[in-house]
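Handout, section B. The chain below has 269 residues.
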Amino acid sequence: MCRNMTLPELVRVLGWARQEGWNPGLDDGEAFFAADPEGYFLAEIEGKAAAAISVVNHDQEHAFLGLYICLPEFRGQGVGHALWRYALSHAGSRSVGLDGVPAQQANYEKSGFNRAGRTIRYKGNRMAALAEDRLAEDADLPRLIEADRRMVGYDRQRFLTSWFRPCGSRQTVVLGTYSYATFRRCHEGIKIGPLHAPSGEEAMALLARCPKSLGDGPLYIDVPDRSPLERLVRSLGYAPVFETARMVKGARPTAKPPAYYSVATLELG
């Protein structure tokens, strides 16, 4: 049986993601769920959760697929594929994006997804501590959400209204009037995303402003290969540790990203 999942079930599925080595944030559940409460799905076998997937409708034209996991004991039985078909119907006529791991990219192509680039996860160390700029406030949200809309090519207001609001494990730093970066504590280290900056100088300044309140550990950032941010983080000693292909079924979004930018989260784009 395939059905929608609840928020507590989503939190449990994020535990599956941790077991898969995806290293989700400590408090991703509420922000993810806020994006589209009807966009998270479970497959059950004899009352036991067997597989999960998300197809989040961000706006009337664009959706994003993620969290596609089938528990090991149910793999090879068609459970995941049945859930895949069920969940994709939620997107309707929208185009659907995803970030696919190398092992699954050929299967996604068979389902009508076309490659639109790649995303590389880099791991690095904190730079010399700088004084933190101010954290995002509610008054900043319209500007930040509009900047993100231009960056990705569609509206993610529901998701970002929650994502940009501070919580104990996630903070968004605002630099000047245009640049910002969200830092979130994960089970290992801290992920940076989205990062949005018009210049290398401002991007470097943001990378050096990880809030001390989030604790220690390595930094991770998911960088599209067409962003010069890739060259910048390499110059700072970051090393690639993981790669996905950005794939889209349907029309590609018309995005106008800044010179330096990173992905918010591979699960929601």
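Note. The longest strand covers residues 114-124. Compare this with the example in section A.
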